[in-house]
Amino acid sequence: TVVADNDEAGVKGAEACEGCQVVIIPTQGEDANDYQNRTGELREILPDLAVQSKMILADDILTEDLTVSWLIKGWIPSGSIGMIHGPSASGKTTIMLDMLLSASSGMSGWIGNRIIRPVNVVYLCGEGLVGVKRRLRAWKSERAVDSLGNFAVYPLPLDLDKPEGIREIRIQIDTLGWKPDVIVVDTVNRYMSGDENSAQDTRMLLNCVDSLRSRYSCSGLYVHHTGNSEETQKRARGSSAWRGALDYEISVSVDPDSNVRCVEQVKMKDTELMPKVYGVIEGADIPGVFDDEGEQVTGAVFNPVDEPESKSDSAVAQAVDLLFRVYTEKKQSNRRINKTAFREWLVENGKASNEDNARKWLGDKRKDRPMGKLLSSGILTLEGDGWYIHDTPETHMVLGLLDKVKT
């Protein structure tokens, strides 16, 4: 429907419109804005428009194609909105690059998870090209691929939660000549003008990126930080609106002892969570690139490793070893160990300065102390003035040997 100004140019323009409904403002010299301001009745002179129903019957939904499509099997669904988050310096960007470069360069999988076809990636890199150039060159050399495929980098921060920001990204994507399968926003902070703790501002960014997803029929992936406190390490920093809006979340954490990264799905809609992936961030040589002193320049890459021994398992093993040292050296028997004998051994071997300190050191009522760990794990039970040692996988071999020895 064309609403024409009631003047010579407006009427002439309306007459030239073909295939349109035409309404000319009834008052001479007025345009639509004038008429609405004066009468408040612009809607009444417009023709009734048929409403296009967006309602779908449930039976009709069942006839539609329900095939599930993946960019990386089990990890990144097609047409999804997801997030990878972790503390600063956890390697979340390096891990994200490893996933999506594997997909864009035509590799058949990422750490055992199938990639069906090459994936087109648009990477909004708010931190600029300095770091990412080294990572890209190191990854390409380390993985020995000929090309990184359709992986385009936009190296500037901007406000995606404002119309001009979305317009800029649309213009830039349209210059590529191909449509993205996934648009990465790294990091949320670099592409958001609002307050990340505000549900309303978070929703604004989500809606704007959703408009890009709708335009290009692609997925969206945010890279974001976690909070500083221990209880916030498995969720995105800021508003809780993130969790409800995301189809999946990937958390990156770092073991402080081994420096091994754990890549863990903490949310995946409509399907089971994938097993955790473990790896290390290592420096890979960039062939032919040296600093001004002739030293080899490297870039960070993510390489998978086996799951490290957990701290709790290691602590239990150390406590069991200590238990049997005392058992043999203090000549205990019948799978029982006396508390007094244990405290004496601690003082004699310099583990405690006196018996009171030895009593605190044992701490059988605290799960973070050696005896407390063994009691809570079922290896020990309290019995009179000591403990009884149970036959468990952790103690079976040593108990079998001790049972053959008279003490």
How would you sum up this structure, described in words?
The strands form five sheets. This protein has a nine-stranded mixed beta sheet with strand order 9-8-10-11-5-12-13-14-15, with helices on one face. A three-stranded antiparallel beta sheet has the order 16-18-17. The protein has helices spanning about 10-15, 30-40, 60, 90-105, 130-145, 165-175, 200-215, 240-245, 310-330, 340-350, 355-360, 370-375, 395-400, and strands spanning about 1-5, 20-25, 70, 75, 80-85, 110, 115, 120-125, 150-155, 180-185, 220-225, 250-255, 260-270, 275-290, 295-305, 335-340, 380-385, 385-390. The mean pLDDT is about 85. It has about 400 residues and is of the alpha/beta class. The protein is elongated and about 115 Å long.
Task: Give a quick precis of the structure.
This protein is an alpha/beta fold. It is built from 13 helices and 18 strands. It is 33% helix and 22% strand.
